[in-house]
Amino acid sequence: xxxxxxxxxxxxxxxxxxxxxxxxxxxxxxxxxxxxxxxxxxxxxxxxxxxxxxxxxxxxxxxxxxxxxxxxxxxxxxxxxxxxxxxxxxxxxxxxxxxxxxxxxxxxxxxxxxxxxxxxxxxxxxxxxxxxxxxxxxxxxxxxxxxxxxxxxxxxxxxxxxxxxxxxxxxxxxxxxxxxxxxxxxxxxxxxxxxxxxxxxxxxxxxxxxxxxxxxxxxxxxxxxxxxxxxxxxxxxxxxxxxxxxxxxxxxxxxxxxxxxxxxxxxxxxxxxxxxxxxxxxxxxxxxxxxxxxxxxxxxxxxxxxxxxxxxxxxxxxxxxxxxxxxxxxxxxxxxxxxxxxxxxxxxxxxxxxxxxxxxxxxxxxxxxxxxxxxxxxxxxxxxxxxxxxxxxxxxxxxxxxxxxxxxxxxxxxxxxxxxxxxxxxxxxxxxxxxxxxxxxxxxxxxxxxxxxxxxxxxxxxxxxxxxxxxxxxxxxxxxxxxxxxxxxxxxxxxxxxxxxxxxxxxxxxxxxxxxxxxxxxxxxxxxxxxxxxxxxxx
Length: 539
Ligand SMILES: Nc1ncnc2c1ncn2[C@@H]1O[C@H](COP(=O)(O)OP(=O)(O)OP(=O)(O)O)[C@@H](O)[C@H]1O
Fold this sequence. Notes:
Layout: H1 7-16, H2 27-32, E1 43-52, E2 55-65, E3 70-74, H3 81-88, E4 96-101, E5 104-106, H4 111-116, E6 119-122, H5 134-141, H6 151-164, H7 180-193, E7 198-202, H8 210-225, E8 230-234, H9 238-244, E9 247-252, E10 255-261, H10 267-275, E11 294-304, E12 310-320, E13 324-328, H11 335-342, E14 350-355, E15 358-359, H12 364-370, E16 372-375, H13 379-382, H14 390-394, E17 405-406, E18 409-410, H15 412-425, H16 442-454, E19 461-465, H17 473-488, E20 492-497, H18 500-506, E21 509-514, E22 517-522, H19 529-536
Parallel strand pairs: 3-8, 3-9, 6-7, 7-8, 13-20, 13-21, 16-19, 19-20
Antiparallel strand pairs: 1-2, 1-4, 4-5, 9-10, 11-12, 11-14, 14-15, 17-18, 21-22
Helix pairs in contact: 1-10, 5-7, 16-17
The structure holds adenosine-5'-triphosphate (ATP).
């Protein structure tokens, strides 16, 4: 193993990650399982550098993905992981360096080129078309889909493919009816359907429950062990790495920071390689608050899913200033619709919402009047304009008010100054305030939206959905600290999260949502885990 490991980092991380599972296998066992000539190709990155203008996102990084192994790429937010894999996939041209496929230097100019070498990528966010069925989405990825489709033949072929694939999904299901775990399986199936045998996965389990994640990774692990696939996975989750991965390569600030075999490493070793010198995140303790007056009152709220079926069926919810109310549950049980109704992106079909005792329809004017702020899930898609700059996105809430506007004139200096300040205070890693926000790493987009929403002078109600999606553990601590600080200041916080541990750690009180209804309510201290599990599973 290369890469230095300071002891303090190791201590800190071993405390944070108490539950780790031992590796299922190691690479030598894996390779022994198959005839070498049947294995996926070897992929080697040699001294790859990627610059965006003057900014070097990846510098002289080398990595070898050996056939029939499960390899993880680790690093903090902004370390260069996505950039590196996008270069491998031909999505970005590398500035310098080489990619070898089975020891031959290859030019890969596009993901389609990458497919020629059996390389397929599953991105952090879903790329399936929601209005289509599973079968239609699979056909859509083929480069040779005929102009006129013989459905009977194609469907029979798809059924044959599905029968032999590691995951099964009903081909007739519309995507809008699939839970996150099934969508992620479909993303992987798309690559298998293209006959790709080297899968590159960018945080594939970020939107999955631990059970869904273990199922997906377990099935992939079986394919790897059988020598049918190699996997290179970007991940922040040590539990999954310890359970499913053979080998890790670590990046820090765009540079190679270490490599090793999981069987020889502890979580602390890997975290220390990621962090370099110790930077202990600040834990924010909850202070005594006195929640009395309701800030948000939801009475009998109903709303529909995109397909017109009921998503929320008569929800009642009260949140007072100075408390965090958590909503736990498996994705697809109404959480998204609830957040969308409260942030004005979906009309309710029944019930009433009051904020500060006044009827609230979640218009922009009402959100402004009542000081309601929201961090929705997938903030790049739901709370940003990707091609606009970081500064412009940071000003989305305030650009029409002084000091950022004078009448109808925008004061660009004020917008930029405010952005520079927020970039500093919230440690947003961006080449400049003028960089399009869509170019930032996932974690930094998350920070930027949180900075915008939390920097308001006065906040009454803060609605957050999966706020640490895809973030490294340092950033998780930071954002959790910000939420607790807001609560301590008297903000009413609604925390919707598919991560039960997050709900239990932060909430003062929480509910489980299942099929659009609250089916369990407790404080974290009094929570009964067996019942929560049953309720989350819909029993
Ligand atoms: N197209 C681009 N133009 C300019 N800078 C970019 C572009 N893409 C990425 N960057 C910058 O490169 C750096 C590395 O980003 P990258 O997305 O590779 O990080 P990451 O390790 O995948 O982070 P995360 O875990 O948050 O997803 C970041 O500072 C990011 O802002």
